[in-house]
User: What shape does this take?
Amino acid sequence: MSAIDDLATELAKLPGIGRKTALRLTYHLLKQPPEQSKRLATVLAELSDRVHRCSVCFNLTEADPCGICRDGRRDRTVICVVEEASDIGAIERAGEFRGVYHVLGGRLSPLDGVGPDDLTIRQLTERIQSDEIREVIVATNPSLEGEATALFVQRQVAPLGAAVTRIARGIPIGGDLEYADGVTIAQALSARRAM
Assistant: This one.
């Protein structure tokens, strides 16, 4: 195999990158000055050395605990449970949530061999037992696996005394009912609130 094929093969392993896109990226890198490719290689090599999981919430961070866990202005009585660290960024961009997080590290998926022991659910229950948590917001994705994970988390957390809530789902702002699927409309109707 050539160096071009080797790089394209590795790039194609990334999510959302197919073989054609991987080849386009490879050829783009070859057109750049060698210093740029070397800088990219250095940054990639340093990534796994510098970034690790927060010992409290399992977010990806360079400092332990992460910046959110260290922030004294956060409401530590409310935990938002997400599937992946990347979900935190989406919630933070909204600017509305002021609690702390807990990253599960995935979602239950028996077909993929992912069970409860593969996620950080035990660590979540330990946090709830040791801290004064009043609410756990489950913010898993609205997929079949995400819903199963949410239900499992709810069953594990509810006996510990904290209120368990689920993020609402429904029609996006600017969306048209005409184009929404039936499940989305049903979720929007069941999550309705007074005006």
Summary: The radius of gyration is 21 Å. The first strand starts at residue 52 and ends at 53. The chain is about 45% helix and 15% strand. The first helix runs from residue 3 to 11.
